[in-house]
Structures are given as structure tokens and as C-alpha cells.
Amino acid sequence: MTSTLIQVSHFSYRYNQESEVALKNVHLEVAAGEFVAMIGANGSGKSTLCNALVGLIPNYFVGYSEGRITVDGKDTASVSVGELSQTIGLVFQNPFNQLSYTADTVAEELAYGLGNRGVPRDEMFSKIKKIAELMQIDELLDKNPLELSGGQVQRVALASAIILEPKILVLDECTTQLDPIGSEQIMDIIKKLNESGITIVMVDHDMERVAELADKVYVLQHGSIVLGGTPEEVFCSPQLAEFSVSPPDYYEITKNVIQPGYREKDFALTESQAIALLQEVLYEDRNQEPQA
Amino acid sequence: MKIEIKNLKHKYPSGGEALRGINTAFEGSDPIAIIGQNGAGKTTFAKHLNGLLRPTEGQILIDGESIHEHTTAYWSKYIGYVFQNPDNQLFLETVRKEFEFGPKQLGVPRHEINDRIDFVSELVGLKHRLSTHPFDLNATEKKFCTIGSILMMDPKVIILDEPTCGQDVEGNQRLTEIITYLKNNDRLCITITHDMKFVVRNFDQIVVMAKGQILMSGSKNLVFSDTKTLLESYVTPPPITRVGQALGLKDISFSKEEFIDHFTRRLHQR
Ligand SMILES: Nc1ncnc2c1ncn2[C@@H]1O[C@H](COP(=O)(O)OP(=O)(O)OP(=O)(O)O)[C@@H](O)[C@H]1O
Ligand SMILES: Nc1ncnc2c1ncn2[C@@H]1O[C@H](COP(=O)(O)OP(=O)(O)O)[C@@H](O)[C@H]1O
Ligand SMILES: [Mg+2]
Ligand SMILES: [Mg+2]
């Protein structure tokens, strides 16, 4: 039995100074241990939903909300953001929003959240050392967080969320400034965290990655969830283009070169699937060569 | 306009060497992409090209003249840099004011500023946002606002530092339009990005950086076939190219069309 960890019920939200709603009647359930991806055009409400999941909406932002969100049984409107952060952590779209602006070094930055939680000093040091190695920021520990490259800040932002070991990690476009190999390495770490039981909610524009990692994909448009399901259900949906989302490139190339009905699956969504399927096509063709 | 970079080194006061001897030159208007590892020095390098940062060693010549001869304010007429983090660039109360600021400083006449606002706000997709406070824009709109305010100064060379971050399909399309516009109007666009799909779609001159140096410069064909350099600079080819390479297709593919063509040819060769 999987248990529901996040329950969003008919949730709507409008920012104070805006005339349009940012979220409209959103209904969503996330099971414990699930890897959920949220996709959709810019301005469709992804970050707003992230803010709502961690309680920044309605506790911090000024606006009007309707409906209800519970995270691990707690109603986000009635517990403090601090209390909620023991359960659910957010990595902001802009890594600079993650920084405390009180720390002189990256090590202090990482210690900041732990300190707030009353973690003893020696335990703190060993945690910082461990996370720094994992995230490959050991060499940055003595540096000023404001004197880093964009990608380096993004790694620090991720590390400062992961170090708190929340049950649920909400990742709002958290690798946009990472180099391609670094980004793959970080996603491997996220995947391992998920395998160890941590629930992941990830916003991303990289459809190849979404198809590779997510158990469930939700598409947002104008503040509503307009499509949801497994990567296959979502990326094969004929409606997808209406929501300004394209399927992974692997889907488009395999769909184009493989005869419909070639196998029970005549398309691929991930790199390894695509290579295997296309190799099969090439190989099979070779076997048929004598008859041709 | 020609930019020559000779043995450029940069050491931040607090840190190590961010640039360890860059030698290269940029000319013409074929768009250039700079790619490579985090911390490689891409931003540090770009900030030297209009004098935002001063070399610790080495020199930068613009049409033969040392960049030291004039201030950043002077060079900004010729070379515009769009910050990686928009919050470092935006400081006025409305998008319109951000747009007006640069050309006003340059003494561009009022009517021309108005014409430019019409054109630029359309190009960057902020026509309906001119009276919005930049801090009420979302992340990608902010980026387009900073791009717009540099376009308003109409420099000969424009450097975009990670404009692709967080862009959706439409945003990427808009960036392509901006890059095409610049090329067609004889302006050189240099773009720093980690999005390799975007790179192969828009650029055929690529500079690869790692650890404070340029490892290689060349066409996308050359760069994405050089596995060793890619690995050293923490870059991977885009998805379609990777599949083509894994299948051992003879010609490298960058677009769906190329892949389909190369794959079908291989099938029929048998
Ligand atoms: N203001 C600063 N003070 C001290 N060191 C800095 C400063 N800005 C950057 N650095 C260091 O200089 C090196 C190069 O940084 P730079 O920002 O140029 O890298 P980058 O290639 O643009 O990386 P990214 O892809 O992450 O944006 C890094 O090691 C970084 O930590
Ligand atoms: N802090 C904010 N104040 C006012 N409006 C906002 C704020 N953040 C987002 N919005 C608005 O809410 C809508 C959804 O934005 P957002 O959640 O950022 O979308 P996404 O993350 O999918 O790009 C947009 O219309 C945006 O302009
Ligand atoms: Mg967002
Ligand atoms: Mg940079």
C-alpha cells in the first residue's frame, strides 16, 4: 500500500497585485516515494505550486487562496513554514533565493539550516563534509557564497536543501545553470535519494530527463493541471502540443523511422530505449538482406 | 569590429586564477557559442570584453585599440553584456525605464528611443509589460528585459550569458529570433549556454572552455565529434547526436531531419 504524502485539493491562488489567478482548482495527489515531474510553459504556475507545497503560499506571499493542501498530514495553511520545512524542502528556481546572506563561507551557509534545527556542532561538521563531497563542492567550502559562478551557487543551493534530509524534496528547475555532465551527476544523486525513499517533485524543461526519471508527469497550463499520467501516457498524448510542450527528442526520431506497429512499442522515450530499438531495426534489416 | 584577446589572465582578489591565458579573436557576425564546465571562467571572460572586469595580465584590443584607453561606459556603445543573473542588471522601476536608460546615456534622440522601444519590446516579447516593475516579472521575462535593455543601445557586439536558463519552447524560439535578427543586421552575438540542443540549433562556431582556458574552437561538427575535449569540459552532445553516435552512423546528426536522413540511408545501404 502506498500512502498519500501530498494532497492538493481544489487549490486556487491569486497573487495580490495580479488580476489573473496563478493556480486554478489544482487537484493532485503524490504518494510517498514517488518521483513526480511538473512541466509546462513559462508562467503556467509551476513555481507557484512549488511555493504552495512548502507553505510559502499562503504563509509568506500576499494573495488569495482557496482549497487546501496537506503535506504528511499537516495543513500547509495552519502550520508554520519552519515546521513544514522539517518534512518538505524546496530548491528555488533562482539559487540566490536559497542563500541566507548572513554566511561568509559556503560551509557556514550549509551549517545555517542545521543550526536552526539544533544539530550539535560535531555532527554538523560531519554532515557538511559528507554533503560537500557528494555535491562536489568541497573546494568551495571556504569561499564566499556571493563570489561563485552561477553553476557553483546552484550546487550550493541544492546542497543546503539536501543536507536537511527532508522527506520530500521540491526541485524548481534546479539544474538550469549546471554543465551537462554535472547536471547528469546531480540527477543521479536525486535518483538515488528517491530510491532511498525520498519523495521528489521536480519542475523541469528537459523532457528527455523527465521521461527518464519521473513516475508521474503533470502538465500545467494557465494555472491548471491539464494532463497527467505516466511519462508514456503524457508524451504520447495527441493533446501535448496544445500545451506548448514537446515530447523527448527520442520519441520524435523513433516515431519517424520506425514502422507503426513494428513491435508492441514502436517508439522510445529514453536514450537507452531509443538506442536499443534502433539497433534492433538496423540488425533485423541486415538479417533480411539476402531476401531483398 | 574585431576583438582580439591576448594572453588574458584574471585573478579575483579573494580567489584563485579564473582565467589562465586566453588567446583568441572574434570578428564578423556569425553567432558564437561559448560552452564548458561550471567555473570554467566563461562569465569572467565575457565581463572582460566590455571592460566590466580588468585583466590581471594580458590585453584586449578592440579594432586595434586597447580596451584600457576608454571606460566601460564608452565601450558599452559597441559591446553589450547581458548578465547571467538579471537581478544584477535591473535597477529601475519599470521595464520602459530600463529600456530608455542606456540610449539616454548615449544621447540618442527621444524619437529614436521611442522607435527602438517599439521594436525591441516586440522582439523580446515585453510589449504588454512596459509599465511593469522588473521585479514583478518572472525569471525568464526578467532575462528578456535585460536583453532588451542592451539591444536598446544597439551595440555592434552583444554577449548573452546563459539566456536559455529556464526557457520554455516559446522562449527558446524567441531567443533564436533575436540571434537571427542580430546576425542579419551585421551584429555579432556571443552566447554562453549549457543547453546543447540550443547550441546546435543556433550556432556553428563554438568555443569550448574548461579551467580558465579555451580548450578548442571550431564548428559544431568538429566540437561534438571530439569526445576527449567534451569530457574534459563536462559537456555532452545533445540527445539526437548521442543516439546517432551510439548507432555508429557515419555522419553526425544535429536535427531530427538529419538523423532521419542518416538513419534511413544506413538502412538502405545494406
Ligand atoms: N566575484 C568573484 N570573486 C571571486 N571568485 C569568483 C568570483 N566570480 C567567480 N569567481 C570564481 O572564478 C571562477 C570562474 O567563474 P565564472 O563565473 O567565470 O565561471 P563560469 O564559467 O561562468 O561558470 P558557470 O557555468 O557556473 O556560470 C570560479 O572558480 C568562481 O568560483
Ligand atoms: N511573486 C509573484 N508575484 C506576483 N505574480 C507572480 C509571482 N510569481 C509568479 N507570479 C505570476 O503567477 C503566474 C504563474 O507564474 P509561475 O508560478 O512563476 O509560473 P512557472 O513557474 O510555471 O513559470 C504568472 O502569471 C506569474 O507572472
Ligand atoms: Mg517557475
Ligand atoms: Mg557563468
From TrEMBL, chain A:
<dbReference type="Pfam" id="PF00005">
    <property type="entry name" value="ABC_tran"/>
</dbReference>
<dbReference type="GO" id="GO:0015087">
    <property type="term" value="F:cobalt ion transmembrane transporter activity"/>
</dbReference>
<dbReference type="GO" id="GO:0042626">
    <property type="term" value="F:ATPase-coupled transmembrane transporter activity"/>
</dbReference>
<feature type="domain" description="ABC transporter">
    <location>
        <begin position="6"/>
        <end position="247"/>
    </location>
</feature>
<dbReference type="GO" id="GO:0005524">
    <property type="term" value="F:ATP binding"/>
</dbReference>
<keyword id="KW-0472">Membrane</keyword>
<keyword id="KW-1003">Cell membrane</keyword>
<keyword id="KW-0547">Nucleotide-binding</keyword>
<dbReference type="GO" id="GO:0043190">
    <property type="term" value="C:ATP-binding cassette (ABC) transporter complex"/>
</dbReference>
<dbReference type="InterPro" id="IPR027417">
    <property type="entry name" value="P-loop_NTPase"/>
</dbReference>
<dbReference type="GO" id="GO:0016887">
    <property type="term" value="F:ATP hydrolysis activity"/>
</dbReference>
<comment type="similarity">
    <text>Belongs to the ABC transporter superfamily.</text>
</comment>
<keyword id="KW-0067">ATP-binding</keyword>
<protein>
    <submittedName>
        <fullName>ABC transporter ATP-binding protein</fullName>
    </submittedName>
</protein>
<dbReference type="InterPro" id="IPR015856">
    <property type="entry name" value="ABC_transpr_CbiO/EcfA_su"/>
</dbReference>
<dbReference type="InterPro" id="IPR003593">
    <property type="entry name" value="AAA+_ATPase"/>
</dbReference>
<dbReference type="InterPro" id="IPR003439">
    <property type="entry name" value="ABC_transporter-like_ATP-bd"/>
</dbReference>
<keyword id="KW-1278">Translocase</keyword>
<dbReference type="InterPro" id="IPR050095">
    <property type="entry name" value="ECF_ABC_transporter_ATP-bd"/>
</dbReference>
<keyword id="KW-0813">Transport</keyword>
TrEMBL record, chain B:
<dbReference type="InterPro" id="IPR003593">
    <property type="entry name" value="AAA+_ATPase"/>
</dbReference>
<dbReference type="GO" id="GO:0015087">
    <property type="term" value="F:cobalt ion transmembrane transporter activity"/>
</dbReference>
<dbReference type="InterPro" id="IPR050095">
    <property type="entry name" value="ECF_ABC_transporter_ATP-bd"/>
</dbReference>
<dbReference type="GO" id="GO:0016887">
    <property type="term" value="F:ATP hydrolysis activity"/>
</dbReference>
<dbReference type="GO" id="GO:0043190">
    <property type="term" value="C:ATP-binding cassette (ABC) transporter complex"/>
</dbReference>
<protein>
    <submittedName>
        <fullName>ABC transporter ATP-binding protein</fullName>
    </submittedName>
</protein>
<keyword id="KW-0472">Membrane</keyword>
<keyword id="KW-0067">ATP-binding</keyword>
<dbReference type="InterPro" id="IPR003439">
    <property type="entry name" value="ABC_transporter-like_ATP-bd"/>
</dbReference>
<dbReference type="GO" id="GO:0005524">
    <property type="term" value="F:ATP binding"/>
</dbReference>
<comment type="similarity">
    <text>Belongs to the ABC transporter superfamily.</text>
</comment>
<dbReference type="InterPro" id="IPR027417">
    <property type="entry name" value="P-loop_NTPase"/>
</dbReference>
<dbReference type="GO" id="GO:0042626">
    <property type="term" value="F:ATPase-coupled transmembrane transporter activity"/>
</dbReference>
<keyword id="KW-0547">Nucleotide-binding</keyword>
<feature type="domain" description="ABC transporter">
    <location>
        <begin position="3"/>
        <end position="236"/>
    </location>
</feature>
<keyword id="KW-1278">Translocase</keyword>
<keyword id="KW-0813">Transport</keyword>
<dbReference type="InterPro" id="IPR015856">
    <property type="entry name" value="ABC_transpr_CbiO/EcfA_su"/>
</dbReference>
<keyword id="KW-1003">Cell membrane</keyword>
<dbReference type="Pfam" id="PF00005">
    <property type="entry name" value="ABC_tran"/>
</dbReference>
